[in-house]
Write a structure and sequence with these properties.
By secondary structure, the protein is an all-alpha fold. Helix content is 67%, strand content 0%. Helix 1 (3-18) crosses helix 6, helix 3 (58-76) crosses helix 4 and helix 4 packs across helix 5 (92-101). The longest helix has 24 residues, at 28-51.
């Protein structure tokens, strides 16, 4: 994805996950607060489900969550490991190690291709932010 596509996609994700319209700049404070709320909700839900014996050991839960996040980053980056590593805030060699650990392959299933295509189509609906005057 080029930078304009990534920017459109970020607008799309923000609007979907934050439940509000985003202006022409990312509000990192609001994003951090919402991420903290999501983390708190995840912890609470894990504890409730685990108490009901429906999940299992925490390490299995965290591994599955990490694997899903990696797979999603690879999907968004269209399989580009360097871009996926950047999205995850890790080095590409670390991503490769984690892909080996979780046995993540780069092939895309039909379902993943359909999801990516849908997300790309929706992202086209969001205009890129205005460029700064000095650019």
């Amino acid at each position: 994805m080029n930078s304009a596509s990534v920017e459109k996609f970020l607008y799309f994700l923000y609007n979907i996950f934050m439940g509000s319209e985003m202006t022409n700049k990312l509000d990192s404070t609001k994003i951090k607060k919402n991420l903290e709320k999501a983390r708190e909700n995840l912890i609470k839900n894990y504890m409730i489900q685990n108490f009901a014996n429906e999940i299992g050991p925490i390490n299995e839960f965290i591994d599955k969550l990490e694997k899903d996040i990696i797979k999603y980053a690879l999907l968004i980056s269209e399989g580009n490991q360097k871009k996926a590593a950047f999205l995850l805030g890790i080095n590409p060699p670390t991503l490769c190690e984690k892909m080996k650990k979780f046995k993540i392959k780069l092939h895309k299933s039909g379902k993943e291709k359909d999801l990516l295509k849908s997300l790309q189509e929706i992202a086209k609906l969001f205009p890129p932010s205005e460029k700064s005057p000095d650019s």
